[in-house]
Amino acid sequence: TTNGLNNSERQSEKLLGGLLASGFDEKSCLSRYDQSMRKPSLYKPSGYLVSKLRSYEMLHKRCGPGTKPYKRATKQLGHNELRSSGDECRYVVWMPMFGLGNRMLSLVSVFLYALLTDRVMLVDQRNDITDLFCEPFPETSWLLPLDFPLTDQLDGFNREHSRCYGTMLKNHAINSTTIPSHLYLDIFHDSRDQDKRFFCEEDQAFLGKVPWLVVKSNLYFVPSLWMIPSFQTKLIKLFPQKETVFHHLARYLFHPTNQVWGMVTRSYNAYLSRADARVGIQVRVFSKPAGYFQHVMDQILSCTQREKLLPELATPETQVTNTSRSLKLKAVLVTSLHPEYSDHLKNMFLEQPSSTGEIIEVYQPSGEKIQQTDKKLHDQKALAEIYLLSLTDELVTSTRSTFGYVAQGLGGLKPWILYEPWEKKTPNPPCVKAMSMEPCFLRAPLHGCQAKTIKITPFVRFCEDWKTGLKLV
Ligand code: GDP
């Protein structure tokens, strides 16, 4: 044995405690089984989650693209008055909306919904998803075939569309005797009360009969799935540790392509692997115009020094004279659209020694300046940086940034969250430690059918960084 592990322990670590299925071709997707850069997770998936994933994989293989049930199901599209034979396959189609972080959060949410409702999840492949992620399901495909009968209509699904569930409720066009063959669900930050009826038990009873659901969302809506009574029973069994939902499902679903993994490993080996400790700092500036601001720079320093993530600069009195052998190296990975924050940090620790004698190495992989979602290389860099952040030991993120949420969840890290500056001032305190590693559902429905449940559910709290958002703890 090496590393004190025997063969079966090593196999289990490679498969993340049973989370991943074995048997994929390793070379075509190196990230899938490569745990060499990551510390083993502190969180093990439950046996029930593992068996649920294996049965989901069987379902997907039976109902996936190219199968007879898939063909039958696509033929039904456009017909109402369905003959329901009970054993037919049902589907949920995910569409990419907004930035990469938003997309990864909604994809995990839709996948959990598929697990809970025994649907097959298929993803729209017309953007660059295949440049970013490998296939997660064995011996089948998660890609919605390009000849899917509704392909031409997918982009046109919006709030005004006659097949939008919220709009149909509004127009009293839903009656429980006619089951439509497909519906569009709109789950955005600005969705209407009717759209949010998706989170109500009785609406789920109806939606469960609809063979095809198409979801567009930019949110992590998992916390509100927990407050649907019939789902909660299953969820408690699947995730006895409630804050592990995203951590497990994201590690199950997302395996960067070899091109992206190359970027991750090259950066890691060049700048992070030799360090004694790694700190990640994700700087997202939402103000308009965005860019470099002194108050944000001050906030980053104030937070990292106060929380002892970075040392102070030495004064002549505090300067430590150290022998080179005992010098500790701390690598600081900065990700931001703006290169100036890391430039400033780098200069600071170049021009003056640190008070602890630690060597601080600052690295920022890219500084793209503006968001360019759907440009292949831009999105690949964004994904590589999310992964690099997840490989750090301590993480600092920015308020309400889904980019940071994904990194913390993948890494199993509870970050320090930089509060959103107001009136161009450094907030005081500058940051807050997250209660859990879960992403925040930034616009959870607070007033509808779940209003009472929110108050009495101990494991759902208002987010640290967004007062009206909800997260699992
Ligand atoms: P959010 O807007 O912060 O919630 O995160 P999203 O990921 O949904 O959207 C922001 C997009 O801007 C990302 O997907 C990237 O395309 C780009 N972006 C923002 N911050 C960074 C960063 O630190 N590094 C890189 N490479 N891209 C970033």
From TrEMBL:
Keywords per UniProt: Cell wall biogenesis/degradation, Glycoprotein, Glycosyltransferase, Golgi apparatus, Membrane, Transferase, Transmembrane, Transmembrane helix
Molecular-function GO terms, alphabetical: galactoside 2-alpha-L-fucosyltransferase activity
Keyword ATP-binding: no
Family: Belongs to the glycosyltransferase 37 family.
One annotated GO biological process: cell wall biogenesis
Organism: Arabidopsis arenosa (Sand rock-cress)
Native organism taxonomy: Eukaryota, Viridiplantae, Streptophyta, Embryophyta, Tracheophyta
Parts of the chain that traverse the membrane: 91-116
Gene Ontology annotations for the cellular component aspect, listed alphabetically: Golgi apparatus; membrane
Positions spanned in the full protein: 528 to 1000 of 1006
Protein name: Fucosyltransferase
